[in-house]
Input
Amino acid sequence: MDTLHPENDRLPSPPLISDRVLINGVITPLTLTADGELQWTESALRKSTTEKEILSFAVEGNKVKLKTLVERRGSICCGGSGGDYARKDFVFEPLYDESRKLWCDKLRQRLDSLVGRPKRLLVFVNPFGGKKTARKIFLEEVKPLFDDAHVQLDVQETKYQLHAKEMVRSIDLSKYDGIVCVSGDGVLVEVVNGLLERADWRTALKLPIGMVPAGSGNGMIKSLLDPVGLSCSAASATVSIIRGHRRSLDVATISQGTTKFFSVLMLAWGLVADIDIESEKFRWMGSARFDVYGLQRIICLRQYNGRILFVPAPGFESNGQPASYNVDKESSVSDKTLGYQGPDTNLEDLEWREIKGPFVSVWLHNVPWGAENTLAAPNAKFSDGFLDLIVMKDCPKLALLSLMTKLSDGTHVQSPYVSYLKVKAFVLEPGARIDEEDKEGIIDSDGEVLARGRRSYKCDEKALMSYGKLQITVDQDEMR
Ligand SMILES: Nc1ncnc2c1ncn2[C@@H]1O[C@H](COP(=O)(O)OP(=O)(O)OP(=O)(O)O)[C@@H](O)[C@H]1O
Output
């Protein structure tokens, strides 16, 4: 019969090796248990586990030096525990050559038995992202941890937009255990799109992608670290990668004709898109650019004509009005050898509903956090096969200002001015501004311009899609 042992009642694990060693010049008993715990007494009982705290070890003369992590518990971060990490060496000296050899064998055996720890990673560093500090973050906070953990790195600084995507689409991925983006969400999305455009996308998708926050938004890494009580820092993110922690992630396919874009974070049109993209000119402010430009946009509030159609998730069928949707046939015609083509859902068989404009904001989210201080979709799940839809039609400016302050804890979705639901498929038919019909908006996906309408955000760059109807479907658990 199986019995349950509460954590405190756990039976002590037998020792793999137990010995008297020198620690800080004092003879001290040191034990490595079968479940990987290193125990010694230095004024009080100390413990360090191979699974969590010990990254690697090396022999230096007669001494064994362990590279370890110590958890720092902050008090101010995000209302949570604010867990973060610092590096620390732990040195001990076995009394005999034989016992040093035995210690090394046992430590190596334990560290080698840890599954999921990466050995070789491809790292993209975007020197242009956020406050342009990614290079410094990488050299000072990320690389030392990977070095301590003996993870080999192939580092590539991104030199221009879409550089990461181009590389990922064509390089030999077989030599890597994962790809890491020291950047904002933009480079992550490039990597995802590059992988999905490969002919061998099914294999490519098995490669885990890690994030280290060095952008202005950092919504994905915040969504990963916050639920486990870790601060959104470079050290926490790097430690999670070293430990091999993984989560599955849904991928949304946005299509317009045969053009496709794969999104893992969000799609926005209206207020949120305007703030996200038009505030680029304040990039030097870091994440404060969203608040500063957001205020300006609310004071001069825009509303857009248009229509959205959606297939509600079970329980959300009362939103909107029944509607029929003629599926964009062109988007399903594809050459399967070219890469991932989106989910094989028969959209015509689904129960569609619609909401007609004007709209202040339409926001579709795959993960909870849109940025480090924006809990856009508090109920969003990484791999539930649904997208969270947040819609705002008319809203008084004062109420809107108060909603902006509620974005940090996700309570904006409780406002009577906000509709918040889960959808399986979605169609956006964007229109012009109600006050100036010759001006249209911006469609933003994962922080990048997907489409820009007439006389919207001034920029000569051509967008991937035109400012017209878009279809969005979601596949469950595509990425890791
Ligand atoms: N050397 C470069 N010069 C100019 N742009 C670059 C360079 N390298 C990458 N980029 C582009 O910079 C854009 C933004 O990058 P990233 O996502 O890292 O930062 P961010 O936009 O500040 O953060 P977030 O996406 O979290 O808001 C991406 O579209 C990427 O393609």
Notes: The domain at 7-112 is CATH 2.30.29.30 (PH-domain like). The pocket of adenosine-5'-triphosphate is lined by residues 126-130, 158-163, 183-187, 190, 215-218, 447-448 (CB under 6 Å). Residues 1-9, 75-81 have pLDDT under 50 and may be disordered.
